[in-house]
Amino acid sequence: MTDWAGRQSDEVVKDWLRQMHLIRFFDEKVDEFFAKGMIHGTTHLCVGQEASAVGACAPLKDDDMITSTHRGHGHCIAKGAEPDRMMAELFGRVTGYCKGKGGSMHIADVDKGNLGANGIVGGGIPLAVGAALTSQMKKQGKVAVCFFGDGATNEGSFHESLNLASIWKLPVVFVCENNQYGMSGPVKDMVNIEDIADRGASYGIPGRVVDGNNLLEMADVMEEAVMQARSGSGPVLIEAKTYRWKGHSKSDAKKYRTREEEKDWRTNKDPIKRFEEWLLEEGRITKEEAETIRQSALDEINRAVEFAENSEEPSMDTILEDVYA
Amino acid sequence: MREITYAEAVREGLSQRMREDSDVFVLGEDIGVYGGAFGVTRGMIEEFGPERIRNTPISEAAITGAAVGAALTGMKPVLELQFSDFITIAMDQLVNQAAKVRYMYGGKGHVPMVVRTPSGSGTGAAAQHSQSLEAWVAHIPGLKVVQPSTAYDAKGLLKAAMEDPNPVIFYEHKVLYKSKSDVPEEEYTIPLGKADVKKEGTDVTIIATAIMVHKALEAAEELEKRGISVEVVDPRTLVPLDEETIIASVSKTGRVIIVHEAVKRGGFGGEIAGVIAESEAFDYLDAPIRRLGALPIPVPYNPVLEKAMIPQVEDIIKAVEETMRGA
């Protein structure tokens, strides 16, 4: 391990904590609103997976790029999206990232390198490869980080994209967040190998397994991978083992797993708690500071809700805006 | 003016854009030293090198998606899909990604890409290499659809497609690749959404696309001898569709036959018929709107059957005469 993450300044590591809190509060708030029927459509929450999002984006520069998934709120926040405009998007308001036309599964901020969440499982993987191709052809030095879940690695687009990125040595880092479950069952029913990272070997791509609930480990492995990709040595496949605390989407009875298992992950492997403990042990932060960071993140999400609620609905004359064919 | 082939016109148009705009590049299967399955990119790798004439693995989903991603981040990719039938494997990236990005992201993000792809039967390539699936993509809001019928149109429309900030599906007809017409050496643009009246006439309008334009013109020549004056309209682009030219022509002649090579059932001819029926041209109709398209079957291998599947000159002549009789 390079201990790159551990060597970052207090300011940086505290910001990682802040981002993880933001992600958790954001998705918990969204969960609440769906339960109350205040938001329509559907959503996929990443509560419990905060460390893989923040750790993956930790070594990125502002102009690096990401592609995300249907479970993408965490990736957006980790890449610097503003929670108020995200929340406004979920409320379908004109101040949202997509002017209320995209919703939870399509938040994007192309100018800032967030090439978009994606409603098609595996759909964003080739897009990341294309973005990396642009970086290579224009010699921009940018890296594309491509998020996807365990389920996407059974899609053809995953395999085709890894091969393409490998033969062209593209600056892309493939990040598989293996949260152990698909919509209705465990990943082991659908993948007959222990580690999805092994799939990289077929394409000459190094595969790394990471504890996705350990922010420091995630950030360290990512930093190495991003360096490799940026240097022109080609892509890396990282498998972050993590756990989705909530169900697949808003209506999921979670018949495929036990409440005890969920409790174990929540109590013993909470990525935020683990990182906070490390910060305290290392003397990087005081208990009071930790509480202030938590509270300010909560305040920010509450302000985001207020912003969303007070924003305008799109007017009917925007329905044909951005239509060209 | 010199005559060149349709394939040469496409190659010339591509090369001229690439010399002027370093963001334009071509990717596709076997387009490098091989020059593409139909030779369209022949010689281009020698001029532009393997970076910009980018040979890809046989991975239609990934190469299409990579083109979308590259377009979204500042390049102007031209993707050659080796046979238009292979669009089936690229559909997610075209329909769910390329077509949606701009609207779904609230106007942020453009996908300036062109998918060039050879379609049509007549080469004995059978059911999986001969289809005309343009109606599939024309149905999708967010994709422009072009079907040039001549070398001249191909070059000018391709320039417009490459300069368009949005995804364009550019259907080249494989039987037309060797057809010749007068093509200026310099660059020129034919705007998307502008139909071309290939032949003026007064008694009946034939709206034909791609190779059917040539069959319609041949039919028109024979019909002139029989005293029927035929107007042949080539929409050239299905999306956007030049409804104005179509409606004006039908309003003038009062009779219309729509001809395409694609299967008639669910084909784009139904859309054109609908446009006419909903317009003021309806009041001028002296006979029912007729559609000619392929039989609803997979393209057969046997050359006699293959030919029988799609409308031929005689079929068009027969349909026009029946329409003239009001049958």
TrEMBL record, chain A:
Residue ranges of domain Dehydrogenase E1 component in the record: 19-315
What InterPro entries does this protein map onto? Answer: DH_E1 (IPR001017), PDH_E1_Alpha_Subunit (IPR050642), THDP-binding (IPR029061)
Output one GO BP term.
pyruvate decarboxylation to acetyl-CoA
According to the UniProt entry, its GO molecular function terms are: pyruvate dehydrogenase (acetyl-transferring) activity
Key words, A-Z: Oxidoreductase, Pyruvate, Thiamine pyrophosphate
One Pfam family name from the record?
E1_dh
**Necessary cofactors:** thiamine diphosphate
Organism's domain of life?
Answer: Bacteria
Q: Which residues cross the membrane?
A: none
Q: What is this protein called?
A: Pyruvate dehydrogenase E1 component alpha subunit
From TrEMBL, chain B:
- Stored Pfam families: Transket_pyr, Transketolase_C
Spell out the PANTHER family in the cross-references.
Answer: PYRUVATE DEHYDROGENASE E1 COMPONENT BETA SUBUNIT, PYRUVATE DEHYDROGENASE E1 COMPONENT SUBUNIT BETA
Taxonomic superkingdom: Bacteria
Q: Which residues form the Transketolase-like pyrimidine-binding domain?
A: 4-179
Q: What is this protein called in UniProt?
A: Pyruvate dehydrogenase E1 component beta subunit
Listed GO molecular functions? oxidoreductase activity
- Kindly state which keywords UniProt assigns to this record, in alphabetical order: Oxidoreductase, Pyruvate, Thiamine pyrophosphate
Q: Which organism is it from?
A: Sinobaca qinghaiensis
**Phylogenetic lineage:** Bacteria, Bacillati, Bacillota, Bacilli, Bacillales
User: Needs which cofactor?
Assistant: thiamine diphosphate
